Amino acid sequence: MVTMAGAIVGFALAIALLTVFLVASRLVQRRRRCLDGRMRPTIESTIVEYLAGDDDEPPPLPGARRGRALSLSVSQGLLSELRGGERMRLTRLLETSGAVDREIARMASRRAVDRRRAADALAQFESARAITALVDGLQDRDVIVRCACARGLAALGDPDALPAALDVVEGAVARSRERRPR
Amino acid sequence: MTRKILVADDSLSVRRLVATRLQAEGFEVIEAEDGEEALRRAIEDAPDLIVLDKVMPKLDGFEVVRSIRERDEIRTIPIVMLTERASEDDVVGGLSLGVNDYVAKPFSPRELMMRVRKALGGA
Q: Does ipTM surpass 0.85 in this model?
């Protein structure tokens, strides 16, 4: 009887803890969305005014983690839409804000998924440092990361890097053919 | 007289960038974030030119062009369309509906400004 009551109390406690956890995580997410909603227009205006203006000196972007993530998100959205001078200005802004260096550092992460995401991000930056990091990434131990780097170099269209990128893709295709059941 | 341009694109960043560029060139800019709003603003404000994204929520860019070209009071407004990729079908389909010019994304805002001026009959 005592064991049964203990099990019920334990179960109720577990449900209560789970509910508290879910409510707390919802509140944190809501607060984060609220903060993002307040910060995003300012970041967007800063970036757009710099891109549309004549000032050569890139403006400072938020240094805190959420601000950095939002700046990168806004910039990536614009990078996929722009080419020409504005794209070059945006790349310069990302270089001076440290975003390019952060993605290069992420290429050394222990997790393949982080390295792949970093390669995808670097593929959008028309920066010499990004190209060097992607070329280095062609030697990554994970085939998905290597292919992401090859894809990125193809997107950036760096002619010097394309033969090595093609080797990686051909190697991945050959390996997948070998593994395919006959 | 200041010329009025409607910029319709669901991306706020792109809209702001194009609007800022146009304002710097002396144009008055009105904005729309989806196809329905673009059509409504075109009818209400009768702009001198429309920069229209092809892919938009609620009403596709082609639908907006079709509706504009069917209304006598606004059918002559020049339209410059922004497309994700200017495929042959997109270009032919758009031109047959009455789009005046195309700019393929990713795009250069400077090139867009030139095409806007050209569509308005300037240099």
A: no
